[in-house]
Design a protein that fits this description.
The chain has 166 residues and is an alpha+beta fold.
Length: 166
């Protein structure tokens, strides 16, 4: 449709008709110009009749995370067939979670898992028991496996760092 109207405008230009005066490249007076958005990072915005509020606060300095123990081994992942089931600690297993199954670590333990093949890492929370297949040391939920980049391979060599509770 747009192509037809452009062709019609060009046809009028070529025909020399004095009735039609097509304007192809001008601004419409009905559409106001919108000023470019200004950065509001780390500044206060005053609202009439209200106290000033900070839109974004600077991040607090990260505290060093204490590592209790380190081990390596093979990790696998589990997911779609188990969504909606209960984990060993009673939670519903949901897609996209950063959780994992371990044979002996207490529930709620935080573990930094690093994929040794690509260097990607994620902090997961233990909420299930397993894996019970071969020599695997941890079974990751789909969200954690995706963050570590081991969905397509299914397994990967990983480093486990058990983090100190804070």
């Amino acid at each position: 449709m747009r192509r037809l109207s452009l062709l019609g405008g060009f046809a009028l230009l070529l025909s020399g008709s004095s009735n039609a005066n097509p304007v192809l490249a001008t601004k419409s007076p009905a559409i106001p110009e919108i000023p470019a958005a200004k950065s509001v990072a780390l500044r206060n915005v005053e609202t009439p009749g209200a106290e000033s509020e900070t839109l974004r606060k600077p991040a607090a300095p990260a505290l060093p995370i204490a590592v209790r123990s380190v081990s390596t081994g093979e990790a696998s992942w589990y997911g779609p067939g188990f969504y909606g089931n209960r984990t060993a600690n009673g939670e519903l297993f949901r897609p996209g979670t950063l959780t994992a199954a371990h044979r002996t670590l207490p529930f709620g333990t935080k573990v930094r898992v690093t994929n040794l093949w690509n260097g990607r890492s994620a902090i997961v929370r233990i909420n299930d028991r397993g894996p019970f297949h071969g020599r695997r040391v941890i079974d990751l939920a789909h969200g954690a496996a995706s963050q570590l980049g081991l969905i397509s391979s299914g397994i990967a060599q990983v480093k486990l760092e058990v983090l100190q509770a804070q």
